[in-house]
Amino acid sequence: MTQDTSGRSKSRFMMSMEHVLREINHEIISPAIPDMSVENAVPLIINVARLRADYLKYAFELSADRNDQHPTKEELAKLKHLRETYQEMLAAARELEHCIDRGYIDLPTSAEKP
Fold first, then answer.
1. Considering the domain boundaries, does residue 28 fall inside one?
2. Which long-range contacts (CB under 8 A, 24 or more apart) does 105-111 make?
Protein backbone atom coordinates (compact mmCIF):
# COMPACT_ATOMS: atom_id res chain seq x y z
CA MET A 1 0.00 0.00 0.00
CA THR A 2 1.36 3.39 -0.92
CA GLN A 3 1.75 6.28 1.47
CA ASP A 4 -1.12 8.15 -0.25
CA THR A 5 -3.51 5.20 -0.04
CA SER A 6 -2.54 4.59 3.58
CA GLY A 7 -3.21 8.24 4.42
CA ARG A 8 -6.66 8.14 2.83
CA SER A 9 -7.51 4.91 4.65
CA LYS A 10 -6.47 6.45 7.92
CA SER A 11 -8.47 9.57 7.16
CA ARG A 12 -11.62 7.56 6.35
CA PHE A 13 -11.14 5.46 9.48
CA MET A 14 -10.77 8.57 11.67
CA MET A 15 -13.88 10.15 10.14
CA SER A 16 -15.84 6.96 10.85
CA MET A 17 -14.56 6.88 14.41
CA GLU A 18 -15.51 10.52 14.92
CA HIS A 19 -19.02 9.82 13.68
CA VAL A 20 -19.41 6.82 16.00
CA LEU A 21 -18.01 8.78 18.96
CA ARG A 22 -20.47 11.61 18.36
CA GLU A 23 -23.42 9.22 18.10
CA ILE A 24 -22.48 7.30 21.25
CA ASN A 25 -21.84 10.45 23.27
CA HIS A 26 -25.12 11.95 22.10
CA GLU A 27 -27.08 8.79 22.91
CA ILE A 28 -25.66 8.67 26.44
CA ILE A 29 -25.22 12.34 27.41
CA SER A 30 -28.29 14.01 25.90
CA PRO A 31 -30.83 11.98 27.93
CA ALA A 32 -28.87 12.81 31.09
CA ILE A 33 -29.49 16.53 30.47
CA PRO A 34 -32.93 16.55 28.83
CA ASP A 35 -33.91 20.18 29.33
CA MET A 36 -30.80 22.06 28.25
CA SER A 37 -31.35 25.77 28.05
CA VAL A 38 -29.52 28.92 28.96
CA GLU A 39 -31.82 29.28 31.97
CA ASN A 40 -30.92 25.79 33.18
CA ALA A 41 -27.20 26.46 32.77
CA VAL A 42 -27.28 29.70 34.78
CA PRO A 43 -27.12 28.04 38.23
CA LEU A 44 -23.95 26.18 37.23
CA ILE A 45 -22.40 29.37 35.87
CA ILE A 46 -23.33 31.28 39.03
CA ASN A 47 -21.90 28.53 41.21
CA VAL A 48 -18.58 28.62 39.35
CA ALA A 49 -18.41 32.41 39.71
CA ARG A 50 -19.18 32.24 43.44
CA LEU A 51 -16.59 29.52 44.01
CA ARG A 52 -14.00 31.55 42.10
CA ALA A 53 -14.82 34.58 44.21
CA ASP A 54 -14.59 32.57 47.46
CA TYR A 55 -11.20 31.20 46.45
CA LEU A 56 -9.78 34.59 45.48
CA LYS A 57 -11.31 36.36 48.48
CA TYR A 58 -9.71 33.90 50.88
CA ALA A 59 -6.35 34.20 49.12
CA PHE A 60 -6.52 37.97 49.61
CA GLU A 61 -7.53 37.49 53.25
CA LEU A 62 -4.47 35.31 53.78
CA SER A 63 -2.27 37.96 52.22
CA ALA A 64 -3.58 41.00 54.06
CA ASP A 65 -1.49 42.41 56.90
CA ARG A 66 0.57 39.22 57.33
CA ASN A 67 3.94 40.92 57.61
CA ASP A 68 6.40 38.03 57.59
CA GLN A 69 3.89 35.39 58.70
CA HIS A 70 3.17 32.66 56.22
CA PRO A 71 -0.24 31.02 56.05
CA THR A 72 -0.68 28.18 58.51
CA LYS A 73 -1.10 24.58 57.48
CA GLU A 74 -4.82 24.83 58.23
CA GLU A 75 -5.20 28.04 56.22
CA LEU A 76 -3.42 26.48 53.26
CA ALA A 77 -5.62 23.40 53.53
CA LYS A 78 -8.71 25.61 53.35
CA LEU A 79 -7.28 27.55 50.40
CA LYS A 80 -6.50 24.28 48.62
CA HIS A 81 -10.02 23.01 49.27
CA LEU A 82 -11.51 26.22 47.87
CA ARG A 83 -9.29 25.98 44.77
CA GLU A 84 -10.08 22.33 44.15
CA THR A 85 -13.80 22.92 44.58
CA TYR A 86 -13.70 25.85 42.17
CA GLN A 87 -11.61 23.92 39.63
CA GLU A 88 -13.91 20.88 39.73
CA MET A 89 -16.99 22.98 39.06
CA LEU A 90 -15.16 24.96 36.38
CA ALA A 91 -14.21 21.68 34.71
CA ALA A 92 -17.87 20.64 34.75
CA ALA A 93 -18.93 23.94 33.18
CA ARG A 94 -16.26 23.62 30.49
CA GLU A 95 -17.31 20.04 29.83
CA LEU A 96 -20.89 21.22 29.37
CA GLU A 97 -19.66 23.75 26.80
CA HIS A 98 -17.68 21.03 25.05
CA CYS A 99 -20.71 18.72 24.94
CA ILE A 100 -22.90 21.48 23.53
CA ASP A 101 -20.24 22.39 20.97
CA ARG A 102 -19.86 18.76 19.86
CA GLY A 103 -23.63 18.19 19.63
CA TYR A 104 -23.78 15.67 22.45
CA ILE A 105 -26.67 17.51 24.09
CA ASP A 106 -29.90 18.36 22.32
CA LEU A 107 -30.66 22.05 22.40
CA PRO A 108 -34.11 23.60 22.22
CA THR A 109 -35.14 24.80 18.81
CA SER A 110 -36.09 28.45 18.44
CA ALA A 111 -39.74 27.35 18.26
CA GLU A 112 -39.49 25.57 21.61
CA LYS A 113 -37.83 28.36 23.60
CA PRO A 114 -36.81 31.90 22.70
1. no
2. 105/26, 105/29, 105/30, 105/33, 105/36, 106/26, 106/30, 106/34, 106/36, 107/36, 107/37, 108/36, 108/37
Q: Spell out the residues 6+ positions from residue 44 whose beta carbon is closer than 8 angstroms to its own.
A: 89, 92, 93, 96
Residue 89 lies in domain: 33-102
Domain-located, residue 60 = yes
List, for residues 12-62, the tens digit of each pLDDT value: 999 999 999 999 999 999 999 989 999 999 999 999 999 999 999 999 999
74 in a structural domain: yes
Note whether residue 27 is domain-resident. no
Position 1 scores a pLDDT of: 55
Q: What is the mean pLDDT of residues 71-98?
A: 97
